[in-house]
Amino acid sequence: MPTTRATTEDRSAVRTLLRLWPYVRPVRARMCTAALVAIVASCTGLVIPLVLKWMVDGPVADRDPSGVWLGALYLLALGVAEAVLFGIRRWLVARPLSQVEAEMRAALYRRLQRLPVAFHDRWASGQLLSRATTDLMLLRQFLAFPLTFLLVNGVTIVIGVAIMLVQDWVLGLVILAPAIPVMWTCAVFERRYAQVTRRAQDQVGDLTTVVEESVLGIRIVKGFGRHRSQVRAFHELAAVLRGTELRKARLLAVIWGVIVALPELAIGAALVLGSVRVADGGLSAGTLVAFLSTALALRWPVDSIGFLLAMSQEAATATERYFEVMDEAPETDTDGAAAGAADGPPPTAARAGLRFEGVRFRYPDAPPDAPPVLAHIDLHIHPGESMALVGATGSGKTTLTALVPRLHEVTAGRITLDGVDITAVPREELRAKVAVAFEEPTLFSAGVGENVLMGAGDGATAADLDRALAVAQADFVHTLPQGTGTRVGEQGLSLSGGQRQRLALARAVVGRPRFLVLDDPLSALDVHTEAAVEAALRQVLADTTALIVAHRPSTVLLADRVALLSGGRIAAVGTHQELLRTNPEYAYLMSGDEEDHR
Ligand SMILES: Nc1ncnc2c1ncn2[C@@H]1O[C@H](COP(=O)(O)OP(=O)(O)OP(=O)(O)O)[C@@H](O)[C@H]1O
C-alpha cells in the first residue's frame, strides 16, 4: 500500500505552521481582533483577585456590609464581562475559519485534479482522503483555539505572575519555581508527541484506504468469501492505530501530570508560607487572598498548555501532510523549448497524423534495473487512418495509449499530432483533440447524459449526445427510468460492464475528436453488439485518426492497419491479413477465433 511517510524529527512546528499564513491572511483582521478580545477577557479575570483583596482588607475587616455588597457587584460585573468577551471572540472567528478550511480544501482538490497520473499511481487514495478531511478539520480547530489561546494564556500568565510578584515577591518566586522543569517537560513532550502524531495521522490514512477499497471491491470481497479476512485486516490496522493513540494519551497524561502537579505543589507551599507570614503579621490577609486567587486564576491557563501544545503538534503534522500534496509539481501546461511551437508548421503528408518518434518510456516508480516498458517506438498513423495495436498481455499497449493524451510523459523521443510535439500543445487543447476510452470504463455519480457529454466541449447539444449514443449502440439509455437524466450509481455500478463500456465509448466520440485512442473498448460486448458498434464506429473513424488497442480479430478488423508491439518496439506494421501471413507472433496472438473473421 503506497503511502508517504515523512520524518518529523527535524521539523520545527512553528515554521511548519507559518505555511498556513497565505490562507489565514484574508481573515487576519478578525483573528487579531478575536485574540485581543480574548486577552482582555482573560485579564478581566485577573482583576477579580484585586477586588477580593480590596474587600478582605477593607469592608470585610471594617465589618461594612454595604461595602461587601458593592464588592460582590463588582465581581458579578467582571464575571459577566469576561463571559461576554469570550462569546464575542467565538463569534468573531467561527465564520472566517470555516472559510479558511473550505478554501484550503478547494485548493487541495484543485491540486489533486492537476497532479499527474504518476502521482495518483503512487499515493493511496485513503491518504489523500484523510488529508482532505481529518487533517483540515485539525487545522481549523488549531486556528480557532490553540493558536489564540497559546497567546492569550501566555499573556495572562505573564501579567498574573507580574501581579503576584508585585503583591509579594517572595511568594511570587515560590510560585515561579516550577517554571523551568515545566518548560523542559514541554520541550521533550513536543518532540515525542510530534513523531507519534505523524504516525497516528498516517495510520488513519491507511485505515481510510482499507475501508475505501473494501467498499469499492465489495463484490470481490463477497464473491471470494473474503469478508472475514478483510475484517481481520481492518481490526489489525485499527489495533495498531489504537496503540498509537494510546501512546499519545500516555504522553499527554505525563505532561498533564507534570504541568498540573508542580504548580499545585508551588501553590501549596505559597499557601503555607503565606499563612505563617500572615500569622506573624508580616503580610495582610487581603494580600494573601489576592495572591492565592491570582495563582488559582492562572491554573487553567497553565494546565491547558499541555493539550494546547498537543493540538498544535497535531496541526503542524496536518499542515505537513497537507503541503506534501500541495508541494507536488502539477502538470505543466506546455514544456520548455517546445512551447510556442503549438501553432507550428502546417502539416505535410509526411508529418500529419499521429507519430511516435523514438519513444521510450519507463514508469517513474519502476526499479532502476528494470528494462523500460517501451524501448523504441516508431509509428506513423496517417490522418484519417485507424491503427490497431496488438501485443501480448503486459507488452505495454495501455502504457503507449496513455502517452498520447499525456497521462504519462515520454522518457525520451517524442509524439507529434499533425507535426506538432504534444508537449508544445496546452494540455486542455491536447485533451480536446484526443479523446480516450479505456477498457475499464469509469462513470461518475451523475446522469448518463452528463457522463457522456464530459467528452465534449460546452457547446455540445442533445443531438450530439444522441449521435454518440447511437454510434456506441448505447440506445438502452432511453429505456432507463429517466432516460439520459438517469443517475448512475457510484462508478456506474448499477450498469452492466458492457453498458458502461458503451457509455465510455459514447463519451470518447461525442466531441468528434480529431484523434481517438481506444484501449480495447469493446471487450465486454457480445459479438452482435460488437459488430453493430463496429459498423457505426467505422463511419466515425472515417475522418478520425485512431489508435485502437485490440485483443480480438473482430476489433482488429475495425482498423485499416495493425501494429504489433513486442519487446518494447513496434515489431511489424501491416494489414491483418499480411501480418497473419508473415508474422508468426501475430498469427499466434490472433489464433483462436480468427477463422471467424478472415
Ligand atoms: N503504474 C505503473 N507503474 C509501474 N509499472 C506499471 C504501471 N502500470 C503498468 N506497469 C507495467 O508496465 C507493463 C505494461 O503494462 P500495460 O498495462 O501497458 O500492458 P498491456 O499491454 O496494456 O497489457 P494488457 O493487454 O494485459 O492490458 C507491465 O509490465 C506492467 O506491470
Distance between the termini: 46 Å
Count up the helices.
Answer: 23
Under the CATH scheme, the architecture of the largest domain is Up-down Bundle
Q: Please count the beta strands (DSSP E, at least 2 residues each).
A: 10
| Annotated CATH topology of the largest domain | ABC transporter transmembrane region fold
pLDDT < 50 stretches:
336-342, 593-598
Question: Could you describe the largest sheet, including whether it forms a barrel?
Answer: 6 strands, mixed
**Overall number of domains:** 2
Strand line-up across the major sheet: 6-7-8-3-9-10
Residue fraction in strands: 5-15%
What ligands can be seen in this structure? adenosine-5'-triphosphate
Domain ABC transmembrane type-1: 34-314
Protein name: ABC transporter ATP-binding protein
InterPro entries: AAA+_ATPase, ABC1_TM_dom, ABC1_TM_sf, ABC_transporter-like_ATP-bd, ABC_transporter-like_CS, P-loop_NTPase, Type_1_exporter
Membrane topology: Multi-pass membrane protein
Features:
2 domains, binds adenosine-5'-triphosphate, 598 residues, Rossmann fold, alpha/beta, six-stranded mixed β-sheet, single chain
Q: What does this protein look like?
A:
This protein is α/β, with parallel strands linked by helices. It has 2 domains: 314 residues, ABC transporter type 1, transmembrane domain (ABC transporter transmembrane region fold, Up-down Bundle), CATH 1.20.1560; 262 residues, 3-Layer(aba) Sandwich (Rossmann fold). It is built from 23 helices and 10 strands. Helix 11 packs antiparallel against helix 12. It is elongated. 37% of the residues are buried. The structure holds adenosine-5'-triphosphate (ATP). The site of adenosine-5'-triphosphate has 13 residues, from helix 15.
